[in-house]
Amino acid sequence: MVNLGLISGNKGTKSVGLSFRIPYNTQWGQSLVVCGSESVLGSWNVKRGLALSPQHQGDELIWRGSTAVPAGFECEYSYYVVDDDRNVLRWEAGKKRKLVLPDGLRNGEVVELHDLWQTSSDGLPCTSAFRNVIFRKSWSTEIQRPLGVIQTKLDENVPSEFCCDVIEIARVDEVELLNSQLSADICDWQFYEIGAVEGNFCPETGPNRELVELSEPQPRSIILSDGMMREMPWRGAGVAVPMFSVRSEADLGVGEFLDLKILVDWAVESGFHLVQLLPINDTSVHGMWWDSYPYSSLSVFALHPLYLRVQALSERIPEEIKEEIQRAKELLDGKDVDYEATMATKLSIAKKIFVLEKDTILNSDSFNNFFTENEFSFEVEQHFYLSLSQCVLGQGWLKPYAAFCFLRDFFETSDHSQWGRFTCYSIDKLEKLVSKDSVQYDVICFHYYIQFHLHLQLAEAAEYARKKGVVLKGDLPIGVDRNSVDTWVDPNLFRMNTSTGAPPDYFDKNGQNWGFPTYNWEEMSKDNYAWWRARLTQMAKYFTAYRIDHILGFFRIWELPEHAMTGLVGKFRPSIPLSQEELEREGIWDFNRLSRPYIRHGFLQEKFGAYWTVIASNFMNEYEQQRYENIVLIRDPEDASKFYPRFNIEDTSSFKDLDDHSKNVLKRLYYDYYFHRQESLWHQNALKTLPALLNSSDMLACGEDLGLIPSCVHPVMQELGLIGLRIQRMPSEPGLDFGIPSHYSYMTSTYLLLQLTLILEIIAAMLHTELSNVAYWVCAPSCHDCSTLRAWWEEDEERRCQFYKTVVGSDSLPPSRCVPEIAYFILRQHVEAPSMWAIFPLQDLLAVKEEYTTRPAAEETINDPTNPKHYWRFRVHVTLEALVKDKELKSTIKDLIRGSGRSYPPTGEIEVQAGREKGVATAAPTKQQVTAGLEKISLLNESPKTEAVAVL
């Protein structure tokens, strides 16, 4: 134990022993450190923190450590996993722990802290989505008070303080402790809440908590922090729609930020707690419809001018401009978004209004506050070059963005390599570009002006959603455009000679090439991923939840050569390659043969017949005895002695021409590369990068984890409290036509077509087990990257019949159209699933009413992942105002949610919910509710060939 005199400098100070105890299973070479705000715990320097020692106790690994502190000691502290050099590998999620020693401790007495590792999943209810929105005005946490006394085997009283965090959904007057003596040295207990109504109480769910055997010598006092009070599962529903797809009576050819207020009204009245959007950042790279792709950001900080409401720019718009706006409304009010015409019209009108009121706006306090929050602080920074990531605290993106937009338009390209002396960014050049004395200052200010109003309009909509109890969920794209503000300002953060994509998967057998440069994670780590933290800080101004696009990219990314056309010839970065020495040990010697083009003329003859010579001479580079572009191993361009097995190696004609020994060796190495050798590396990589994101805001985080999923992904996501994604029509389990939701792990987020037999199985299990044992996920019938429910049903007759037989349980022929009864049946399965969230694309919700299904189903698909030049232009064909007035549709949807036991927001300002007492927020679906769904679908079984059906 540390000598207290060395700590305090006063040998007469009363010394109290402080003992830490925490169960945590580590890997070889890892250990635990406790670090805190006071010097005795390292003053937040982990290398000087208190090292803990491991001790096996049954199947658990218990870490312990002791030190001496003065009486009355107070501090904050957290636990960290470190390597042998005390480098931090991971740390606890959530708030720092707070320690205040009990009064009356005598010299030499020991206080023992019994802690549990805080995971992010434990802290989900503390995210802004729940704290500031869903549970707004009814929030209570960190209720910490002594609640009981333990009788020990020595027949002495040990004061024990039980620390419990409580999330208050209904009003809670106090928390009490129920305990029972099991043996001489073990006690178990449960907490329960005493409600506002006299005599009502609500015990927590799950098995009893247990206090393990006390250490020797016996401590004077125990402070036991046992995590969050275990509530009954909260379940909610949401609607997903791209911002550009929204249609309103006021919009100018595309959805606008202020339309979100009407969408929120409809969501609340329909029973939804969440509205999910696609990315809303500026994508104006090419100046044409290619810019409709929402995941190719021009700037990860700037908002898209497409979503600006020009009518809201001023209260004094001249009549001639109002008339121009009205003409534009009529002209642009089409079936789909006309991206180029809409952008040109909005910017033209906005410039006219800007000329009229620029002096007033640019000199206003509100604009100056916005400008100050988002500009660089040049006076503080004396370096010639200042990166965007180094200005994270100042959020200094606005000036570089405005300068970039000016240069893009001046040079008529976003390719900054074509900008002459402005190709290389510097503070000096930037300051001259944005100077008030420059001839282009008005142009620069126009971009400030647009971003200012976009901020005001989105912030207004976001605050409206919060007040209504609706979570606004954003989207964090994995990439940025190669010709973007971010690559101009911070080129060192990107590998500009590479491209990002995905290996072959459900969406595309050739893989995907997204065209984004990959990230230079080593460079990003130097300032603790400040660029990423800045992005999340900016998002949190408007959103209380977000989706991490392609979360696999934080474990590893599929990296392609810049010149690649498809996603086939890629490799994972980071990854452990096959070394030349390793291959030679296995008897593989001819590296040129394996890594250079190889297609024999016989293959071309088979594919192209008499035209094979024309194809070969015009489209193939001949190499050695009529072999053409087809490879087995990809040679590392940065190290010629390293190789990567090409994806789907066995499908190549080059591989098929190999001898059996080489085939067997390469198949084994291929399998090892893709499914074994990288796991530890990717696990460590994700635990370096993802916590920096998650800890930079308090938004609720969800991860899109589709594709080729390494086994390390789901454990890391669960540890970090990330909700994942499943689409049942794309099962990750081999040999299944549809995924099995009952097999998904806790905190899995699923987009599924849930089978009725599984619903009954889950409900039956719920009736006989604790609700706390049921896994949570998010469920929905489709997402923006796949066809809608209607299109999926109608595009494949064989699959439709299979689904009708296995899921509906009927041998009859299904309807050829996804009639409202089919849509209703599938939606009901989703809302009755034991998931935390059920989120539905708006198109799938509209499918429950016949009048909203007149548009061809194929036209409702938002994205085609197989087409890199897809035009993102889908618009909902009914206005939000009409949906708000449609009482029948809202009633149908709300009845679905109410009947499922999911929570739904009040219709006015959010109020304290008493859902737990009434069973609204926590009730499990009943057998009667499932039976009702069967009765509705039975109408179709009676006359399967009839498409005219009863109105719901």
UniProtKB/TrEMBL annotation:
It is found in: Cytoplasm. PROSITE patterns: CBM20 (PS51166). GO terms for cellular component: cytoplasm. The keyword Ribonucleoprotein does not apply. One of its GO terms (biological process) is carbohydrate metabolic process. Its main location: cytoplasm. Keywords: Carbohydrate metabolism, Cytoplasm, Glycosyltransferase, Transferase. It holds the Pfam family Glyco_hydro_77. It catalyses: Transfers a segment of a (1->4)-alpha-D-glucan to a new position in an acceptor, which may be glucose or a (1->4)-alpha-D-glucan. InterPro entries: Carb-bd-like_fold, CBM20, CBM20_DPE2_1, GH, Glyco_hydro_77, Ig-like_fold. This is 4-alpha-glucanotransferase. It comes from Rhododendron griersonianum.
